[in-house]
Design a protein that fits this description.
single chain, 243 residues, alpha/beta, Rossmann fold, six-stranded mixed β-sheet, 7 helices, binds adenosine-5'-triphosphate, P-loop_NTPase, MacB-like_ATP-bd, ABC transport system ATP-binding protein
Length: 243
């Protein structure tokens, strides 16, 4: 079966005015449809850079990115933007909500950009927000929401187009453990609906919910482990551990 996402010989260097930073040094990876994969590794090992390359938010210096059998790293900016809108949802650590739009306007934005009618977009956004238990926050400005609520708005926005692939960079990184538990439950629910999930995390409990953990070190994959057997029956945040 064609992997939903594939990286081949991916390299990314940053030129910082003379000194070259080798952020990603030749990564091959393949993500199966419906998989939940966590990327871990020490600070600065290239996790966010890799995620941005895979999401088509940045371009590799060398190597290839394939989404569902289509090479995407060579698409034009407009082609990349179209592809992202249709196929990929991205959740960032710092939420990246539009501050001048209300919560529901943030969620419906990708639908409007896809050409959905305003009424349909509003209905779909409203349903998603109710599912994520932020239904009463439609009209709130992002600045007036808690971190967990903002992250749920960001997840609703990422899920609005029912993307095949959900990419998340430290989606629980700025949340307390209660909010983190809720966000992880939402991500797992997305996976259970058949969406493919790739997330960068420092949190071992988040990683323990994944099917596979990819460890990065110095811009390379240092280890990959399947967790099918070790997967806990209970949700890792369940059981009263608030720490
Ligand atoms: N825009 C940039 N310009 C120059 N160097 C960069 C840029 N972005 C990242 N880097 C460098 O590339 C390397 C990888 O950074 P990256 O943010 O991908 O790491 P990370 O594993 O996500 O780190 P963290 O866990 O701390 O977020 C680091 O050495 C970083 O300083």
């Amino acid at each position: 079966m064609t992997p939903v996402l594939e990286a081949r010989g991916l390299v990314k260097t940053y030129d910082t005015g003379g000194a070259e930073v080798l952020a990603v040094r030749g990564i091959d990876l393949s993500i199966r449809r419906g998989e939940f994969v966590a990327i871990m590794g020490p600070s600065g090992c290239g996790k966010s850079t890799l995620l941005n390359l895979l999401a088509g938010l940045d371009r590799p210096t060398a190597g290839e990115v394939w989404l569902d059998g289509e090479r995407i790293d060579q698409l034009s900016e407009a082609g990349l933007a179209r592809m992202r809108r249709r196929r990929i949802g991205v959740v960032f650590q710092f939420f990246n909500l539009m501050p001048t739009l209300s919560a529901i306007e943030n969620v419906e934005l990708p639908l409007l950009l896809m050409g959905r009618r305003r009424r349909d977009a509003r209905d779909a956004a409203s349903l998603l927000m109710s599912d994520l238990r932020i239904g009463e926050k439609h009209d709130a400005a992002p600045a007036h929401l808690s971190g967990g609520e903002q992250q749920r708005v960001a997840i609703a926005r990422a899920l609005a187009n029912t993307p095949d692939l959900l990419l998340a960079d430290e989606p629980t990184g700025n949340l307390d453990s209660v909010a983190a538990r809720e966000v992880l439950a939402l991500l797992r629910a997305a996976r259970d609906r058949g969406q493919t999930l790739l997330l960068v995390t420092h949190d071992a409990r988040v990683a323990s919910a994944a099917d596979r953990v990819i460890m990065l070190r110095d811009g390379r994959v240092s280890d990959q482990s399947e967790l099918q057997v070790a997967r806990p029956v209970a949700f890792p945040f369940d059981g009263g551990d608030q720490g």
